[in-house]
Every structure is written in C-alpha cells, then in structure tokens.
Amino acid sequence: MIEEHHIESKEQWLKLREQDVTCSVAAALPDIDLHAHVTPLQLWTEKAGKIPAGATDNPAMRRGRLIERLAIPLIEEARPDWTVEKSNVYLRDREHRLGGTPDFEVITPSGLRGNVQFKSVEPYLFERTWRVDGAIVPPTWIGIQTLLETYLTGADFAMIGVCRIGYGVDFDLIEVPLTDGLIERLQQASLAFWESIEKNQPPEPNFERDADIVRRLHATTVKGETIDLTGNNRLAILADLDAEWALTEKNAKQEREAIKAEVLHMMGSAEIGLFNGEVAVTAKKIDKQAEKVPRPAYSYRSVLFKLGAAV
Q1: With contact defined as beta carbons under 8 Å apart, do 131 and 121 qualify?
Q2: pLDDT tens sequence across 121-167
Q3: Rounded to whole angstroms, how far apart are CA atoms 155 and 148?
C-alpha cells in the first residue's frame, strides 16, 4: 500500500521525508551506488543523524523552483493533447521506507496516466552530462528517481522533462522505459539500508568522494589515546603516496610561481597583456588591507606521517 500525504507546509514535508529514503537520493543506496552527487556514506550519515542533512535550499534549488513555473506551459506546448497537473502530495511505501514528491501528472487522451519529473539544467552542463553521441540520455540517478516516483504514483508511464535556458528556452520530454526488477531491487536495498542504521553499520567510505564526511565524523580525539596499527600494510602505502603527492604539490607550486614571474617579466609595469588583439593576461596590483577582526577560533585534525618516505 502506498500512503498519500497532502503537503500542507514545508516543515510537514521535511518531517515526512526524514523517515524515508526519498526518490531523489535512492540511487545513493549502498546496494545501488549510482548517484552522481550523493554517496552511500553521505546518505547513511544523514539518515542516521550522525551529520545534519545538507541545506534544504541553495541558489541552484531556488533557480530550479523558479524555472519549474515554466513546466506546465512547456509540457502543454510539447503535448497539446495532454492534461497536466502539478502534484502536491508526498507518497510513501511505508513497508520499505521509500518516499517521494512527484513533480507533475499528465493524462493522455486515451486515459493513460504519466509521471513527469522536471529538471532544469545549465546548457553547458547539459551537453556534458546528458548528451551521448548526439542523443539525450538522462543521468542514471535521475532515471532511477523518475521510475521510483512512477511506481509510487501508480502511473502508466514515466517521462523526464528537461529545460535549458540560454539565449532561448529549450525543452525536451524523454520517455524512461519501465525497468523490470528495479523497484524490487530498490525496496530490498532500502530495507538493508535501514537495518544497517539500526545496527550502526555504516557503508565503507569512498575516500575520494567522502573525505569531508570522514573528517567530520572523526573531528575529535581523546587526548593521549594510542592505537596500534602494526600489521596494517595499507598505512605504509598511504605514507608513501602522501609523500609523493606532497612533492608534486610543492613542485607544481614552484612551477606556477615561475610561470607567473616570467609573465611579469614580459609585461613590466603593464596591467593588461594583449595577444592577437584580445586580452590574454592581466596583472593588476592588489592591495590587501590589514585584518582588523581576528580569525574566529576553529579546530582540525592534522595528519602527519612519521614513517618511511614521509619522514
């Protein structure tokens, strides 16, 4: 059974979302791990209450909300024979703790119901992330979001409406084929996810993507506490890698400073350098005022290797 909750306020809506894995992040479930922006560990720490959830609003979200006002006329222009309605419900699969807020419902002349997920994408980003060999291919995580919403709504078909605003307004409706077994896989992944929270068993970090989260999770120390890492061969590998990257960073900084010095030597006292009639480089004098307000106190953990090549 799918529960339907009419959205009465932002606070009520946010409270409803707390208890579920929502469609927009379902692709980040540890057993799925196909989200472009959210990692399994990030999802886990937020739902487990280890780290506060990310901001519920930012400039990109505001841009999306404002552009979403164009969605109904854009869909109606693309499909004049469809009836289009804005959804205002939060839907829950209580048993599997999956939920979502669909964007738009459409009804065809034959009576078929469709779920339309609306996205606004910066044109350059669209060409880099949605265009494959000339065809429009939505990112996988958005496809999963749309199909999960379609399941929750009980709609007959799934669509993504993608809008780009540059010099003009471009809009495409893309059908997302219903995928056998996907919903069952998401349901099982969600159950396993919530069980891992109950057992306090977080997923393994992706250290490249989760570096900030790991730092926040381990921000404090017990003074004087010691841990024996003997036998952990990974530590020696990490020490060598850190030394290599430190040297690369140092060399890169020196090279960049040398490049800038050579450019200044070319320009002398000039602020602007032209190349083929166009501005190619600038070298303005920047005057920094003395800091009148001292920097607020803050803390961080300094990791320093004491073995091998890192000494």
Answers
A1: no
A2: 999 999 999 999 999 999 999 999 999 999 999 999 999 999 999 88
A3: 10
**Under 8 Å between Cβ of 162 and 143:** no
State the number of CA atoms in the 13 A half-sphere of 112 facing the CB. 11
Residues 127, 78: Cα–Cα separation, whole Å: 21
**Residue 78 CA to its chain's centroid (Å):** 29
Q: What Rg do the C-alpha atoms of the chain give, in angstroms?
A: 26
Would residue 154 be called left, alpha or beta, if left means φ above 0 and alpha means ψ between -120 and 50 degrees?
left
Alpha carbons 25 and 144: distance in angstroms, whole number: 9
Contact 112, 156 (CB under 8 A): yes
24-70 confidence digits (pLDDT tens): 999 999 999 999 999 999 999 999 999 877 655 677 777 777 788 88
Closest CA to 78 of 98, 100, 99, 106: 106
